[in-house]
Amino acid sequence: MSEQLERLQKVIAQSGITSRRKAEQFILDGRVKVNGTLVTTLGTKVSQSDEVSVDDVPIDKEKHVYYVLNKPRRYITSLDDEAGRETVIDLLEDVTERIYPIGRLDYNTSGILLLTNDGDFAHLLMHPKHEIEKEYVVKVEGIAKREVLDRMLKGVRDEGDVLKAIHFKVMSIDKKKKTMILRITLHEGKNRHIRRMLERLGHPVMKIKREKYGSVDLGTLQPGEYRPLTKQEITSLKNLATKNVKQ
Q1: Of 59, 100, 200, 243, which is the most exposed, with the fewest CB atoms less than 10 Å away?
Q2: What percentage of residues in the chain have a pLDDT greater than 90?
Q3: Among all residues, which ones are annotated catalytic?
């Protein structure tokens, strides 16, 4: 029986080192070899026995794995950090596959973070057009008026970006301490999105926790704990991303 052939860019993406779109660019840029031979044609197909390398480094043909982590504060959402700070990868001590975070959470933001070595899956979830909802619980300084908070739905301009929320709800108000807790839902998350948006509205953020990513929540996971995503959760996330593509 002949070996099954797959498109070269798909095999590179499945290794977890990049998305399929970027893998295509790697091929066009002359960074990919198959069995030692430079390949620059996107239609090229390879088998499981072929050796594929990017920048002369063989790709790992690992089984795809998917995890959900309850990220504590003061961890970098990265594979490493030049300043020597602890990263989220340090928390997944018994995971041997080369995984990486899907998107980012700020250093001082806690909560749900997904990690994988499946480049296609990561790209699917991170692309803004797929509109995966993420829910955050946010504690802010001051007690904002409704009309001020409503500006989040229309968009708040900051440093050339338009920062928006798609939903929000006031969870509680502490008149004595002059603070309030909000539940905010985003589709996309620009750098420090919620912090910048609320600071522009005059209500600096004191604490943020992401509690839900699409159909996946933290459940009983404590800060620093993690678990594999279930097959049902993986399928649900894929279906959400496919369903929500903008027309």
Answers
A1: 243
A2: 66
A3: 106
Q: Mind listing the pLDDT tens digit for each residue in 34-65?
A: 999 999 999 899 987 889 999 888 886 667 89
The string of DSSP codes covering the chain is -PPPPEEHHHHHHHTTSS-HHHHHHHHHTT-EEETTEE---TT-EE-TTS-EEETTEEPP-PPP-EEEEEEPSS-BSSS--TT---BGGGG-TT--S--EESS---TTEEEEEEEES-HHHHHHHH-GGG---EEEEEEEES---HHHHTHHHH-EEETTEEE--SEEEEEEEETTTTEEEEEEEES---TTHHHHHHHHTT--EEEEEEEEETTEE-TTPPTT-EEEPPHHHHHHHHHHHHHT---
Question: Residue written as tokens 């498109």?
Answer: 7
Q: Collect the ranges in the chain with pLDDT lower than 70.
A: 1-3, 16, 60-62, 244-247
How distant, in Å, are the alpha carbons of 141, 170, 206 from that of 176?
A: 12, 17, 16
Residue identified by tokens 């690992």 is 62
- Return the pLDDT at 118: 85
Could you give all domains of the chain from N- to C-terminal order, each with its CATH number? 6-58 (3.10.290.10), 66-129+216-243 (3.30.70.580), 133-213 (3.30.70.1560)
* Rama region for 123: left / alpha / beta (φ>0; ψ in -120 to 50; rest): alpha
**Would you state the pLDDT for residue 247?**
45
